[in-house]
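Suppose you are handed a protein chain with no further information: no name, no annotation, nothing but its sequence. What can you learn? This example shows the usual starting point.
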Amino acid sequence: MFWSESFIYTLKEAPEAAESISHKLMLRAGLIRMLVSGVYSYLPLGFKVLKNIEKIVREEMDSAGACEVLLPGLQPQELWVKSGRDEAMGETMIRFTDRKGRKLCLGPTHEEVITELVKNQVRSYKQLPVILYQIQAKYRDELRPRFGLMRACEFIMKDAYSFDIDDAGLDKNYKKMFIAYEKILKRCGLSFISTQADCGVMGGSESAEFMVEAESGEDKVMYCPDCNFAQVSAELKKCPNCKKSLTEKTVIEIGHIFKLGTKYSKSLEANFTDADGTLKPMIMGCYGIGVSRLIAAIIEQNYDKDGIIWPREISPYDVLIIPLNMAHRQTKEVSSELYKNLSAKFNVLLDDRDERAGIKFKDADLIGVPLKVVIGEKNLENGKIEIVKRRDNSIMAVDKDKALSQIKEILSASSG
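A reasonable first move is to predict its three-dimensional structure. Written in structure tokens, the prediction is:
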């Protein structure tokens, strides 16, 4: 892709309303733009990052044996009345009445809808267990949207749901999802903490939160670096496992998994016939992770004074080619040939703009592509081009004729 054709618009300064570092950098790097408070458009760079995160999530969910579905965003309020959560959601739920008089809402989550779907398909214990997931927009009327995608009124979430015949089956699927979440967060380049948590309005008997340390986080957790114990309660000062002092960390909640049990299956009558002919409620679990929130979390742990530093698997592009002067014939030829050869295997952005080198360098650091290839007249006179790694800004001057193979080697190694 050529920069001139890619709809990338960077900002020198972040708007005053942007508070967190991730919000500022997403706006400055041209990932998102605000439509109204709490509602954002994804520009091409942001959308590419979102799709890369979704790809990771899908791969790990599929690997764990979950099947993808897509549930409706419009939901009948009567389902929420049946589950008993209608009043609990309060004004957070966006409700309306359509022209036929039906009371509907925009889905803030999908426990009721998935339970209604499964109860009409599954009748026998022979059809269980089932794990279904989706990646979809959720809608909540946040009183005070903050930090860009961190607390938005419309956001992208992966929510999965398991249905089992007994608690042993739920325990097995809960563990599967726990491991899958660890894999997702590691592939996203995140350092994270997991801890037991309160089930809250979701209900159930047990839950675990996955949290990412960040300056702009709204939650606090007490953490033991020696044994990795973590507890949400600030009253706890000593680790109950190793008796060492706990450290308070500021974190972002990025994922939450629950053992729901029969909370929804009983109220919505999602039953199955057991081997002995007995009618029993399905045993449920639910597993949520903030896909759009992950973008913010990744930036909070991967940036410097100049901009974003994307982990390779998340980055919108694998490599950015920066010709310093496209009017110079050899610079243009070398850049074009390198772009053509790399594009056969990698996702490449070529900065073909007629801009000063300083502007190109600043924009390159801001958008955070892991590898930069700088092609300038002076280096070409000596048969060289520069390869720059964004994470540590290390520079390698390599022979022009060997550049392609060396770039491929670096990119292949970083994807392993």
